[in-house]
Design goal:
2 domains, alpha/beta
């Protein structure tokens, strides 16, 4: 591929984004999980830790300085105003860190996974937007089996997110993950091959 291609990957909770990231990494892409970047900042960036504690109270900070994500989540989950405050604080720093990693890599393809990719400016730097999707029942089963959530918590997590249809409407590539992994991989291979042709034009 000539030049660097940036793919934005999004989709609601438990729709198979991690599987697509693994497939991309196996083909030499640099994969960046925006949520993992957030975790790294909350664990290791003293300035961010102080800012979050100032905004949400000392109870969200552990004795070693790291942010207690469970305590922070209890404050912002289900509270749009508080979540907005947190995102306004974190998102610019996360975007800057993602930009640094993209600039530093020699990988011809970068895939950035972000649950709110389409709600912010990251989407504008992406050549394509890929969206994973599956049935609500599949999401709930994965949350129960793979993440150990009870039914009520799983339902709350699913219902807290924007409609999958809104993401699909803005996608360049849609990958349905309800079936076998081989079916998911086949869809990935088709999209990857078309990306290759587009990049070589």
């Amino acid at each position: 591929m000539s030049g660097r291609v940036i793919i934005g990957l999004t989709g609601n909770i438990a729709t198979g984004k991690s599987a697509i990231m693994r497939l991309a990494a196996e083909r030499g892409a640099l994969t960046i999980d925006a949520d993992r970047v957030v975790h790294e900042l909350l664990d290791g960036d003293a300035a961010i830790q102080t800012a979050v504690a100032d905004a949400f109270g000392p109870g969200v900070r552990r004795a070693d300085g790291r942010i207690d994500r469970a305590a922070l989540g209890a404050i912002v989950f289900g509270d749009a105003e508080q979540l907005g405050r947190l995102e306004a604080l974190l998102h610019p720093v996360v975007r800057a860190e993602i930009g640094r990693r993209v600039a530093a890599t020699d990988a011809p393809v970068v895939m950035i996974e972000a649950i709110k990719l389409l709600e912010g400016p990251l989407a504008a730097v992406c050549r394509q937007v890929w969206v994973t999707t599956c049935a609500r029942e599949t999401q709930l089963e994965r949350l129960r089996v793979c993440r150990g959530l009870d039914e009520a918590t799983a339902v709350a997590r699913v219902e807290a997110q924007s409609l999958q249809a809104d993401k699909i409407a803005r996608a360049d590539v849609v990958i349905a993950t309800d079936g076998l992994m081989t079916q998911t991989q086949a869809q990935f291979e088709t999209a990857w091959g078309e990306l290759q042709m587009t990049s070589d034009e």
